[in-house]
Amino acid sequence: MWKNAMNEPVDVLIIGAGASGAAVAWSLAETRMRILCLEQGGWVKSSELPSTGRDWEARTMEDFAISPNRRGLAADYPVNDDDSPIKIANFNGVGGGTIFYAAHFPRLHPSDFCVRSLDGVADDWPIDYQTLEPFYALNDRMMGVSSLAGDPAYPPKDSLMRPIPLGRTGEVLGAAMNGLGWHWWPSDAAIVTQEYEGRAPCINLGQCGSGCAQGAKGSTDVTYWPEAIRSRIELRTRCRVSRIETNEEGMATGAFYFDADGREQFQSAEIVIMACNGIGTPRILLNSASERFPDGLANSSGLVGKNLMLHPYAQVRGHFDEPLDGYRGSPICTWSMEFYETDPSRDFVRGYSFQFSRGLGPVRTAINGMADGLLPWGDGHHAAFRRLFNHSAGMVSVCEDLPEETNRVTLDPDLKDADGIPAAKIHYRLSENSRRMLDHSIARGKDILKAAGARDITSRAPLPYAGWHLMGTARMGKDPERSVVNEWGRSHDVKNLFIVDGSVFVTSGGVNPTSTIQAVALYVADQIKKRIHNLFD
Amino acid sequence: MMTDRHGDTGDLSANAQQTLRCIARQMIPASAEYGVPGADDPIIFTDILQSIDRDRALLQEALDIVDAMAGGSLVELPEAGQVKRLMEFRTARPDLAAAIEAAVARCYYRDDRVMASIGMEARPPFPIGYKVKEGDWSMLDPVRARGKIYRDTGLMEESS
Fold first, then answer.
1. Which residues on A lie below 8 Å from B33 (Cβ)?
2. Would you tell me which of A334, A452, B6, B92 could form a disulfide with A356, CB atoms 3.0–4.6 Å apart?
């Protein structure tokens, strides 16, 4: 009886409770439809987050590691990323990747939506910045974004509250940027700097990347989900979806999933919304292959899993004689869009943003210092450590990753998760354009650090453990032969199947995607509401 | 702790433990000047052994290689011989050396005595947090003065 009641048909089934799943759930709540979200992980307890313990840095390399393969927890599914120089990062649980993200919250730029028209590469999006602008703004309010109005790198946008502190790091690097005449600005950050909607202000724990115990960081477990649940959305955790089922009309009828006890269940639904990120979504669609859809669900274009974009990162760091902020404060403080747009004088198209970062904790200082040859073994260790610790700052470049069909997600023929569901396999190569962009960003990064007076400058590219941004594997478009979903997120093939995560990105831009992922999710939800009476036509 | 992971629960072999302790001492020796123990300190080394769950197999492999390069046992070599062999190991297998460095650093740099020596309070970040200087926002005046830098698309009407 209980089991049957639990699996009563719902109007809307959302798969995944991360950045996009939470936003779409919250937005659809006003329809009063019966809405259920299935999430393979659980709720994160703030009292268990690394920053609550003395061993906070070590824990970010264990149960709170960014790699699902390293964590290997019950909520995780393995990803075979052996064939990629950039390793996959994620978090599986309520909040998804927002639990671990830095909350650095740039929007895409207007030009990002029309790179084919402007630069003759990739494809244009079927929507533009102006279409998403109200949803960016709504999302900023929901997530609690701090910022400084007036950034000349963007069309005008409101500021809800003062930005995160510049700190001494921001001042030193900002002075260097001013000297070079290059753009920089305090980051938009989904980190509240004042009391906001029941959330306490940031106290500079410095641990945004492993979950915020203060609740100041806007992860969706503390933003969208509490409101969505108050609106009677059901969120069922520890439920891992294996495949979407369809009927003779080619419509989705619901999803099979494994519950917390490993029992396979079926959840019937009128509408299915995928919100599982750029790897989880194609994995489920490919695992949903059937006689009716032999190449995977919603895959008549053959593009499910293809065009994977990851944002290659270059990291450049230096050390300063004066003490800086060290491990205190949100790790990212400012950004630069100086090299964002295509410049014909360069040997690559499109561009990148810089995100400037403060220092590292003592453990990471030691590990990186030894890896970089700046921190010796033996008697010289202690003196060298003290020259590095609290004296470092730097940046990463977030390089636009152009879509290529050879960069893709497939199903691993051997690797399976704990429920026996085939795992995702990543096939990814850096393009020559990306390599040139990385090289350019390293050179400019070194220019900046030298101008700031840094010594002992190091660089890494591509940063291997930086595959946070998972995009492009079920792209949006008007042409069913060249895209997986239409311009409002509905599958071209399956009229009651929607995708709202980073899979739908046509291009990646050169900035962190969460703000845009959520704006797209809110936009798709809005389209569903507006079209509710002829949604499947 | 967070959840239910099924890891390797075996111990490093006794030889491997000896070798690891020797490497820890060579990596981060005690210092009277800075008032800190070495990474082979009993408290720290016990912490290391209790904290290597996910890396145990990799460390065992690394330590076996170190011993093999040392002719059977690193700890049997004189001091200078240990330093020389470890240098060779780090050059030959930087990946495995990095695994040992991480295992040692994770525990060494959370010891109260070490934290005090590098000027840190012996506490977690939460709930007290830290102070960070707000910064001088007038530094952005030149950036503002330069004006708009985002690219006109020619395909939309930008709001003013």
1. 382
2. A334
- Asked whether A357 and A396 are in contact (CB, 8 A), the reply is yes
Residue B31: φ, ψ to 5°? -140, 120
CB B132 to CB A57 under 8 A? no
pLDDT at B2: 46
CATH number at residue A388: 3.50.50.60
The residue-averaged pLDDT of A286-313 equals 98
Q: Give A487: exposed, middle or buried? Use CB within 10 Å, 0-12, 13-18, 19+.
A: middle
Q: Which residue of chain A is at minimal alpha-carbon distance from B37?
A: A382
User: Is the distance from CB of A151 to CB of A296 less than 8 angstroms?
Assistant: no
Record the tokens describing residue A141, joined without a space. 């309010």
Render A253-282 in DSSP notation, one character per residue: EEEEEE-TTS-EEEEEEEEEEE-SHHHHHH
Alpha-carbon distance of A91 to A220, in angstroms, equals 12
* Yes or no, beta carbons of B150 and A111 under 8 Å apart: yes
Residue A266 is assigned to a structural domain of this protein: yes
What's the CA gap between A489 and A483, in Å, rounded?
Answer: 11
Per CB-CB distance under 8 Å, the chain B contacts of A110 are 150-153, 156, 158
Q: Check CB contact under 8 Å for B110 and A49.
A: no
What's the CA gap between A188 and A197, in Å, rounded? Answer: 18
Nearest by CB to B106, from A61, A72, A365: name it.
A61
Q: A7: pLDDT confidence band, cut at 50, 70 and 90?
A: confident
Which residues of chain B form beta strands (DSSP E)?
A: none
ipTM computed for the complex: 0.93
Taking an 8 Å cut-off on Cβ atoms, the answer to whether B125 and A329 are in contact is no
Per-residue pLDDT, averaged over A383-402, amounts to 98
Domain count, chain A: 1
Residue of A nearest to B98 (CA): A371
Residue A81 within a domain? no
Whether A80 maps to a domain, the answer reads no
Q: A432-451 and A167-180 are packed helices; what angle lies between their axes, rounded to 10 degrees?
A: 100
B153/A48 CB distance under 8 A = no
Cβ distance B98 to A382 less than 8 Å, yes or no, reads no
The CA–CA distances, whole Å, from A233 to A11, A37, A419, A530, B83 equal 11, 8, 26, 20, 62
A84 found inside a domain: no
Q: How far is A245 from chain B (nearest CA, A)?
A: 30
Q: How far is A206 from chain B (nearest CA, A)?
A: 8
Residues 6 or more apart whose Cβ sits within 8 Å of residue B115: A362, B109, B121, B122
What is the least distance, in Å, from the CA of B14 to any CA of chain A? Answer: 24
| Mean per-residue pLDDT, A30-43 | 98
Contact flag A63-B108 (C-beta cutoff 8 Å): no
Domain locations along chain B: 14-117
Q: Is A211 exposed, middle or buried (0-12, 13-18, 19+ CB in 10 A)?
A: buried
Distance from CA of B24 to the nearest CA of A (A): 9
With a pLDDT cut of 70, the percent of chain A lying above it is 99
A352, A441 in Cβ contact below 8 A?
yes
Residue-number span of the structural domain to which A494 is assigned: 2-46+57-75+89-532
CA nearest neighbour of A444 among A430, A432, A467, A461 = A461
Which pLDDT band holds residue B158 (cuts at 50, 70, 90)?
very low
- How confident is the model at residue A118, as a pLDDT? 96
Chain B nearest-CA residue for A55: B110
